[in-house]
Amino acid sequence: PGLHVFAIAFALEVSVGKTNTMMALNNSDVLLPCTFTTCIGFQDLVFTWYFNSTELIYHGKIKNKATEPTLVTRNPRVDFVGSTTKKDNNISILLHNVEFSDAGKYTCHVKNPKEKNAQHNATIFLTVVHKMVETDNTVTLIIVGVVGGLIGLLILFMLIKRVVLFIIKKTQDGKKECLVSSSGNDNTENGLAGSKAEQKAPPKA
């Protein structure tokens, strides 16, 4: 049981990076990244790249850590651009002159006989476009413009609201001041201070 847990802990892992979606320009070359990791090493490791799960586009073998992969079979438009004698066990491929028909799912599959034929794979979804960034930028700029405009209007509205509230408050404060000063003036004209009037009121009653 202990050995079984150990085997799971050091299982084969295959990765295509942080994102599994890519965009390529029609007639360009596109790099399809893939790396694998295994803590217990590998022997006669086999890796294959598939297009849409069924079409094999690259098949390679790696004898051990000290050797680079040997080609078994490949699509004429695909080249191996990785390296396995370096630290990251890179088994990336380069797809030349992509066409719209090349859009789809690319699977990087690895099998390691040293790990009781452990297998693992990772997938990239490729989109092929006629023009690369122009359309996206226009849409983005429109969105940013609209959002920016709305935020600008909101800020302007908030500022106007503040100014209006400030004016109303000042006007109300002014009225209060006028009322206070006018009542003070009235008392002065009558010759009576508020306190004296209050003191004289009880005797009259």
Quick tags:
Immunoglobulin-like, three-stranded antiparallel beta sheet, six-stranded mixed beta sheet, 11 strands, alpha+beta, 3 helices, 205 residues
Strand fraction equals 25-35%
Overall strand count: 11
In whole angstroms, how far apart are the ends? 106 Å
What is the averaged pLDDT score? 79
For the biggest β-sheet, the strand order reads 2-11-10-5-6-7
Tell me what the CATH architecture of the domain at 13-129 is: Sandwich
Sum up the overall morphology in one term: elongated
Q: Per CATH, what is the topology of the domain at 13-129? A: Immunoglobulin-like
Work out the helicity level. 25-40%
Q: Using only CA atoms, what is the Rg?
A: 39 Å
Annotated CATH homologous superfamily of the domain at 13-129: Immunoglobulins
Total helices: the number is 3
Structural class estimated from helices and strands: alpha+beta
The largest sheet, given as strand count, sense and whether it forms a barrel, is:
6 strands, mixed
SSE ordering: HEEEEEEEEEEEHH
The top-level CATH class of the domain at 13-129 is: Mainly Beta
Residue runs with pLDDT of under 50 for 5 or more positions: 1-8, 175-192, 194-198
Organism: Serilophus lunatus (silver-breasted broadbill)
Domain Ig-like: 1-125
Protein name: SCN4B protein
InterPro entries: Ig-like_dom (IPR007110), Ig-like_dom_sf (IPR036179), Ig-like_fold (IPR013783), Ig_sub (IPR003599), Ig_V-set (IPR013106), Myelin_P0-rel (IPR000920)
